[in-house]
Specification:
Blueprint lengths: L3 E3 L8 E7 L6 H5 L7 E7 L6 E5 L4 E5 L1 H4 L2 E5 L1
Antiparallel strand pairs: 1-6, 2-3, 2-6, 3-4, 4-5
Protein name: Ferrous iron transporter FeoA-like domain-containing protein
Pfam families: FeoA
Keywords: Iron
Length: 79
């Protein structure tokens, strides 16, 4: 059974498939850039402490910086 984990728990270089976004407050620009359930993403950079996380959407090679608080609301499974 696949393990669902929030994006803030992933390590740099991890590839994951987004399962769910637990908030309606995620900016619409994320959806426009292909960041939605079913998308495959790679963690590119994590700022220290509660800084942003840089995520690459594999399908269209879009880099998105998300807040750690937003990353906690997005679940994915490692691939």
């Amino acid at each position: 059974m696949p393990q669902h984990i929030s994006l803030d728990k992933l390590k740099i270089g991890d590839l994951a498939k987004i399962n769910a976004i637990q908030s309606t407050e995620i900016p619409a620009k994320f959806y426009e850039l292909g960041f939605y359930p079913g998308s495959v993403v790679e963690i590119k950079h994590k700022a220290p402490l509660s800084g942003p996380i840089c995520v690459n959407v594999i399908e269209n090679n879009a880099l998105i910086a998300i807040r750690k608080s937003e990353a906690k609301l997005i679940t994915a499974e490692l691939i």
